Amino acid sequence: MPVPPPEALSISAGLLERITGVIRDNGGWISFARYMEMALYEPGLGYYSAGSHKLGKGGDFTTAPEISPLFGRCLARQFAELHAQGLRDLYELGAGSGALAETLLRELAALDCLPDHYRILEISADLRERQQRRLAKNLPEHAARIEWMDALPDAYEGVVFGNELLDAIPVQRVRQTPAGLAEIGVALTAEGFVESPRPAGTALAAVVEPLALADDYETEIPLAASALVAALGARMRRGIMLWIDYGFPQHEFYHPQRNRGTLMCHYRHHAHGDPFLWPGLQDLTSHVNFTAIAYAHPDLTVLGYTSQAHFLVNCGITELMAETPADDLPQYAPLAAGAQKLLSPAEMGELFKVLALGKNIDTRLCGFRRWDRSHTL
């Protein structure tokens, strides 16, 4: 794994010092969720808040919108269907590089289904600035439709969506022991940060108890992600949520063989399991428990759940590819390579899932017309 340059290590050292201060101020221990929050989002120092290049080639990971415009074009076809039903505002949570917003707006314009408003909720000041530069340069004709939000609206109607957002929301970590449930937190030693278990609080234990975890089972509990979806559901008057991410339904997430959880770290396209390496310079993620997301709010109805591959096929990815002649190799070859990554079970096609939730809307979504797996949640 490549060693970060000195300027990056200096940023990491600043974040390490700040986290150290928080741990000391809290009696020598913080929850892993608090550590993950600071490592990713601490202003000016966290992974998503500092200025390092994160997405695409040369970054730490590549998301579907960077892999191929086919992803955004397929998603646009689902949004066009909802536009016809009166859902004319789009809310993107965590817009990354801005690639998805750019592709969506181009395709929706071509379909004559442009949203009245395209609102982006982005908590990273660095990423927001990059998005603003990109969209102002590449889509000046749509500038009046695009706006950035600092917080969730008190009430809204429309389509909310997030691609690889939920996996980056801080999680609690727990370990089941013969003596009871322990919450795995973070403490200090002379060598640096270490895992430190302590008895779990009543609220966390109440969430974990129905899972009936075996002794010595470690895993993540997505309290913050569920709370975000619940808040969105409470404020939604009428609309759809669409979540695209890697993960499993609950019975697979807490499978006996997955007894060390799903936490993963990414640095320059290298994946590893040490969350304390170079804090602020690496991404920390956890797979999504889609069952917890699906039932986060009682007023939300599951409208569809399937693999990314099946969703994209349902939304017409093969027809979109057919628009480019196969014998036009300079154009078709990169298109086919991107589609392979999006669709292949060995790449993103099966691990990534798509979940649709609705409120005060009863519709059959084109992205789930075949191969719907809602019964597995």
Order of helices and strands: HEHHHEHEHEEEEEHEHEHEEEEHEHHHE
- Spans of at least 5 consecutive residues with low confidence: none
Q: How large is the radius of gyration? A: 21 Å
User: How much strand?
Assistant: 15-25%
**CATH architecture assignment name:** 3-Layer(aba) Sandwich
User: Residue-averaged pLDDT, rounded?
Assistant: 95
Give the strand tally. Answer: 16
Determine the CATH topology. Rossmann fold
Shape, per Cα inertia axes: globular
The overall number of domains is 1
CATH class: Alpha Beta
Describe this structure in words.
The protein is globular, with a radius of gyration of 21 Å. Strand 11 and strand 12 (270-272) form a beta hairpin. It contains 13 helices and 16 strands. It has 377 residues and is of the alpha/beta class. Strands 2, 3, 4, 5, 10, 14, 15 and 16 form an 8-stranded mixed beta sheet that branches. Helix 4 (69-83) crosses helix 5. It has a single domain, classed as Rossmann fold (3-Layer(aba) Sandwich). The model has no long low-confidence stretch (mean pLDDT 95). The chain starts with 5 loop residues before the first helix and ends in an 18-residue tail after the last strand. It has helices at 6-25, 32-41, 64-67, 69-83, 99-110, 125-138, 202-208, 223-235, 250-253, 290-294, 308-314, 317-322, 329-343, and strands spanning 30-31, 89-93, 117-121, 146-149, 156-163, 172-177, 180-189, 192-199, 218-221, 236-248, 264-267, 270-272, 283-285, 288-289, 301-307, 352-359.
